[in-house]
Amino acid sequence: MDMEKIRELIKLAKEEDLKVLRIGDMDTEVHIETKGGDPVVAERGDKKDMAYVEGGQDGLHTVKATQIGTFYTHKEENSTENFVETGDAVSSGDQIGMIEAMKVFNDVLADADGVVEEILVGNGETVEYDQPLVTLRPKGD
């Protein structure tokens, strides 16, 4: 990612008064955090999955956004077919949605096996960093 694009991201973070802005593609991830002053930028080459799963109440796992953007449950723009539906069984690595940020689409992947308990965000809704997206019930529960 070139410095001009990073400057644009910093400007966006300031203008929108964002606390965290994380943008990634296949090669690079840029993470900008503002802490009351000028934004701090960290860039790294190893991009992690754009979502992760952690334990929640009642044995449920919550898939959370690891970036700010627009969450899509639909597989294609003009489609009504979702990546997953409530009750679907998913395996670790299965795509359960996408997050778009600055015209870059990032897959949201399940990081555990389970059954979709609830989809917490609608198609086309804006999501914040660390916002819960989907809850999974471990298989067999």
From TrEMBL:
Q: Where is the Lipoyl-binding domain?
A: 60-137
InterPro entries from the xrefs? Answer: Biotin_BS, Biotin_Carboxyl_Carrier/Decarb, Biotin_lipoyl, Single_hybrid_motif
Stored PROSITE patterns: BIOTIN, BIOTINYL_LIPOYL
Domain of life, per the record? Bacteria
Q: Which UniProt keywords apply?
A: Biotin
For this entry, the protein name equals Acetyl-CoA carboxylase biotin carboxyl carrier protein subunit
Organism of provenance: Candidatus Salinicoccus stercoripullorum
